[in-house]
Each structure stands twice: as C-alpha cells, then as structure tokens.
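Appendix B. One record, verbatim.
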Amino acid sequence: MQMHIRLSPSPSPFPFPFPSLRSPSPFLSLRFIYVSESLLQRTSLPSLSAGAQIFRNLHLRLWRAAAPPPQMVGEGKEQQQPEREVVLTKPLSLDIGESEGDYKAPNLLRRVLSLFKNLRPGSDLTHFQLPPVFNFPKSQLQCFGESLYCVNKDLLSGCNQEKNPLNRFLCVVGWSICTSTRPVIFGLAPYNPVLGETHHVSRGSLNVLLEQVSHHPPVSALYATDEKENVETIWCQNPVPKFQGASVETVVHGKRQLKLVSKGETYVMNSPNLFIRFLPIPGVDWVGNVKIHCKETGLEADLCYKTDSFLGLRGKPRYIKGKIYDFSTSKILYEIEGQWDRTVTAKDVNNGKCTVIYNAKEIISGLKTPTTKDSQEVWPSESAVVWSEVSQGILSKDWEKAREAKKTVEEKQRELLRERASRGETWVPKHFTVTYTKEGGWDCSPIQNSVPPAPISVPL
C-alpha cells in the first residue's frame, strides 16, 4: 500500500509521499513518530539522563525531517499517482532574449493596461494581485539558486584547488561577483515564493537546496554541498524594496558564507542591491557596497557596484571597483575594476600585472535549462511544481489561465495561514533553523549535514 501524508505544520500545502515510512506495519511507524514527538516535546532536558537526552534529540530530529501529526488520504486504498507537472524554464543569462527558446514578454503598454483591468475607484488593495503578464515564469527562489548552479565554468572547484591563500581569495572574489549579479529583465518580476516552498537542484557533485523560511518578511535560505570538492555554502537573503520616486532599490539583507572545508577557511560576504530606474531612462542594475572577509587568512575585499548617472550621461553601467587588502595592516594587495556583464580584473599593486578574475561571457552566456528524469521524484513543494500551471499559462500567453492559477496558489496560502492561526500553530521550516536579532537580522542554519542529490539536474 502506498500512503500520502499531509503534514501540519508543513513546508507545503501539498501531500508528501514518504517511501521511507513504508514498513510491514506503516500505521505503527506513523503512530510511533507521532507519539515519540508528543512525549519528547513535553519532556524537559534536565529530567533526562545524558543517554536519554541523546535519544530525545535524535528522535526530535528524525521527527522534524519526517512529519508532525499526519493525516492519511485514501486510507486503506491503493492511490493512483497523478502525473506531476514540473515546468523548468531557461535561466537568466547574459544573452537572455536572444535565442529562439527565450521567453518574450508582451509589450510594456499592454502590461501597464492589464494592471488596471481589475481595479476600480475605491478598490481594496490589501490582496491586490500583480497580473501574471508582469511575471517572469520562474520563482524568486529559482532565480536565487540559479546564480549558484547555473554556470558554464565551475568556479567553486577553482576556489578550492588553488594552493596559495591569496590566489584562493581572488577566486572567491570572482565567485562572489558571479553569484551576486545576473541580468534582470526590466518590467518583469519572478513569483514571490510561498511559505515552505523549496528548490532542489544538482549540478555534477554540487547539490543545492533552498527553502522559503518566511513569507512576511520574505526570507530565503540556501544550503549547498559538494562532497567531491569538500565545499559548502550557506546563504540567507531578506530583500527589502525601498521606493525612491523615480526608482526602486531593493536592499538585500543577509549573510552569505562559503566554506572551503579542506582548507579550514570560511569566507563571509553580503550582496549588492537591485536598482530599478523608471525615469528618465528605464533600466536595471546592481549597486551598493560588498565586503568579503576571511578570518583565517586575514584577507578582505571591498567592492563598490555602481551604475550610470540619473540622465545616463556620466559613469558606467554595471561597473565594479574595489580592492583586496591585508586586514591587519590595511596594506592594499590588488585593485579590482571592471563591469560585471563583461570582465573584471585584479591589478597587482606590486608589479602592475592584471589578471582577469571574472569573464561574464564565459560563465553566464548560453546557460542550459535544468532537466528532470522522473517528475514523481520531485517534491510537491518544489518551485517548478508549485507554480507549474502559472508558468504554463504565461509561456502559452493564456493570461486568464495564468491569472486563475496564480490566484489559486495565493488563496491556498491564505487559507493555510488562517487554519494555523485558528489552531494557534506556528509554522516551522523543514530544512533550516531560523533566527532573528535586531543587530544581526535574519540568519539560517541547515538541519542536515549535507544536501542529497536532486531529481532536477543541470546538464554539464
């Protein structure tokens, strides 16, 4: 017998199949998980022996990975697995819009007119829905993950294979630029991820997992491991848009960590901000200051992302300028300069030699679309599943279908929120622990020690 289990609280409003829970007595297994969790949650740590504490923590961890109290769908019946729709689209790349398979959005005038289709004087904007004609057929969670796994050149392995700490730091700076900056289409936005939405993708030996750990405010967590290269990275992102009259600047709060485990080095950095200008010349760019620090080597980099002036008469678009220096002495070792959509070079201040540390054309041009062999192995909480009907409508230009599908996804989330509130429940992320402090903001830590291979993969 195959069971479907509905989790409450759950990272997704969809039923999860759990093959790992199959046993000669599946109901006994499920009842054991539920009773264990109930008893262990009520048992205080001081009242337990050291061995019992280990037992308690182990079972709580197993329970969290499996399920809180389950509800069985179709109990006692053989369930017919419906075909699961997984819609994967081309990643945002340097040459987006140039190839035949790229998504072509309707003209801007049509999109603006559609914005007012459902608005009337005095309308309540509390639950106003952005028309799908303004959406790119992809979740923000996917865009976040693509910046790590959608590349033509494996920069992570390059970071790990360098013998010299300074050369490793140069590679990390190039990797930071690559994962922070991707071309964005003006006038289009990805979907806002729903609470508990996940994105799980592999590229070679690199396995990447993302989860939307908060919806209001929006917070995304990423954990990626490469056991072959002995590398892992943990990101936490909280974008906050700020309206500035003729433009909007989305400040990306959060910390990103890259760990070269075999070298014993951890690199901590932040992200640039997304800048959208409406007038006088519409455009999108990345701006702001980024700091990259490695405590173990004492090296640090300051990067400044700039765009052109208000009228476009001064400055360079997509421009980066910065330096690498020894933190203890403030001695400058390299000067960084270039454009993130072209090349960025590092100039050795001692001998004047310039080295290209990032070439956008080599790394983010002609990127391949991820694929999946078996859609039934893809989690129901996967972005490409949650938004599949919306994406199908957008890609086929069936705007009514896209609008209804998007409304269904969003209304389901509001219904789940009301249900949790009525039961006094607090939603808990499945794959991350999340903390927030006024001084440090949001921080995320993965529950598992590594990310397993995913059913969705990027062709090499």
